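Data availability (excerpt). The following record was deposited with the supplementary files.
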Amino acid sequence: MIKQVKQRNLMTGLAIAAGVAGIAGGVALLQNAATAQTAMVEVPMFEVDPFWPKPIPGEGLLGMTIGASVDAQDNVWVVHRGSSTLNNNEKGAELNPPIADCCRSAAPVLAFNQAGDMVRSWGGPGQGYEWPEGMHGIHIDYKGNVWLGGNGAKDSHILKFTQDGKFLLQSGHQGKNAGSNDPENFGRVAQIYIDPKTNEGFVADGYRNRRLAVIDPDTGKIKRWWGAYGNKPNDDQQPPYDPNATALQQFRSPVHCVALANDGLLYVCDRAGDRVQIFHTDGTFVKEAFFNKNTRGPGSTWEIAFSTDPQQRFIYLTDGTNERVRILQRDTMTELASFGRGGRQPGEFYGVHSIAVDSKGNIYTTETFEGKRIQRFNYKGMGMVPKGSNQGVVWPRQPA
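Predicted structure:
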């Protein structure tokens, strides 16, 4: 009898213990669910458009595609490096003699409408200007003019054209760069932006120089410039990148992007330094933010575009090393989420480089290296995602 009572007490104790454990487990699940709920953030949502753009006429191919801009009519402009970055088996029709019926380089400057049709196509050497050895960056300004950056080994200049390809202005001269404090020439430019409020131009300058330069877009004259933290730039030898070292007081090469927000804050990408620095337009330093600091090589901060809401709440930051488009909260520079992954299929990236946004909020990305293309990501409204998550390939949802 005593033995049976002990067994009953033991079983009762085990049952109570199990009950307590179950309650504790349930509380933990509720706490985890609450934590997960608080870790959700609202971000713009996108889906890749695998049918945009349409094929380029004449079996034309893009080479390394290193610039994107959207004009007032929502046409999407790109610039690419063409034949010099296409393999012989890609451009067989343009070799002398031709080795195949397919294919050839498309013109360096192209524009596509919203339906994906090519509506502009021009570029190359001409009278009155020095066509760059290598291209980098395209900007359609508020007057509709087309700006191009020279980025080849000897390129020290930028060019301005009409949308039909008529030459308007050259600033700087090929082969004349005298360093990061040159008042007349650039040093392998990465990107250009013209401010419609002040009619000043901002130049990420660049791959040889280490500065942000300001120009008069009517004359091309360089007005002022500065380096990291607003310092006077220099071209001293820099140590290899170390994510644990104190941040350099100078930009690393390349100074890869410039983007001006509606509130007058100027964003500059120090690509190989994995950071974005923010300035007032007079060169006064505001703050900086780092992204994926362990990224070496080409770095993590490639190019910037803003969301289309009046406050421009979000920044879209391309990262062609980690193959992501990062979505940042602009006021805090906090990374909320990202999308994309490495690969060659729609929605994947190989060297995701430039980025632009149209009036509907759709994103356009270009790819350099062997990526050689432009992709569109359709804006699908706002949605909730886990903070800091990568959404991978944002493939179109299947209809219900």
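Summary of structural features: Residues 1-36 have pLDDT under 50 and may be disordered.
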